[in-house]
Design brief:
Strand order of the largest sheet: 1-2-3-4-5-6-7-8
CATH superfamily: Copper homeostasis (CutC) domain
Strand content: 15-25%
Number of helices: 10
CATH class: Alpha Beta
CATH architecture: Alpha-Beta Barrel
CATH topology: TIM Barrel
Helix content: 40-55%
Order of helices and strands: EHEHEHEHEHHEHHEHEEEH
Length: about 240
């Protein structure tokens, strides 16, 4: 299992890289679970990290085909290895598929960038398709992977929202569809062994890697501690 650490700027990216994070994720935590950083900030993060580690970019929740096409193209142009798109407020699975096909089309024109769809464990509160439905959408549109996250951050971490057995079944479903599966959503250091036991390919953290929680600053000591808790991977890879 690989460790993804979300960073808000290039300074945090350098800290996470030096402490052993396998994947650096560009995200503005003050703008929600998938808050996008500016193109300038993303370019600075890529410049600080590549070629040592891949960079992922959170692009927020898809609102329209035009917006998602533009945001994917801009992130790809900045050098993101993969992009993450969520579906808060997109209740229709058919609409989620249309948006995903658009995002994947933008990735195809930039073959160095791949698409990851984000499913919300608290889908009812997010107004999004269920996690299982998002796996089917990801497989149909040609995404490389899926990430299970939490949308609303007031109900604890991922394993407070869904049981270990349910999360494990979701990971297995993703693998059955040929997709890589990642877990995130308020995960603490004590959750990493459980996350690994699900068979997930990746675990993503923000608050657990920061002094002062998700809106604090990434700590090298905390990242190093988290990295020591996950099994080392031969080569870093995307979700």
């Amino acid at each position: 299992m690989r460790l993804l650490v979300s960073v808000a700027d290039d300074g945090e990216a350098r800290t996470a890289l030096a402490a052993g994070a396998d994947i650096i994720d560009a995200k503005n935590p003050r703008r929600g679970p998938l808050g996008a950083v500016t193109s300038r900030t993303l370019a600075a993060i890529v410049g600080a990290v590549r070629p040592h580690r891949p960079v992922s970019a959170a692009l927020g929740d898809a609102l329209s085909t035009g917006d998602v096409r533009r945001s994917v193209a801009e992130a790809a142009a900045c050098g993101a290895s993969f992009v993450k798109v969520g579906f808060r407020g997109v209740a229709s699975e058919a609409r989620a598929l249309r948006l995903s096909v658009t995002a994947q089309g933008a990735c195809i024109s930039r073959p160095a960038t791949t698409l990851v769809l984000v499913a919300y464990a608290d889908a009812a509160r997010a107004g999004s398709p269920s996690p299982d439905a998002l796996v089917a959408v990801a497989a149909r549109c040609g995404a490389s992977g899926v990430l299970l996250d939490t949308c609303v951050k007031d109900a604890g971490g991922l394993f407070d929202v869904q049981s270990f057995d349910r999360v494990s079944a979701w990971v297995a479903l993703a693998h059955d569809h040929g997709l890589r599966a990642g877990l995130a959503g308020g995960l603490a250091a004590g959750d990493l062994a459980m996350a690994e036991a699900t068979g997930a390919d990746l675990v993503g953290v923000r608050g657990a890697a920061c002094d002062g929680g998700r809106n604090g600053r990434v700590s090298g000591c905390l990242v190093a501690r988290l990295h020591a808790m996950v099994r080392p991977a031969a080569t870093p890879a995307a979700v």
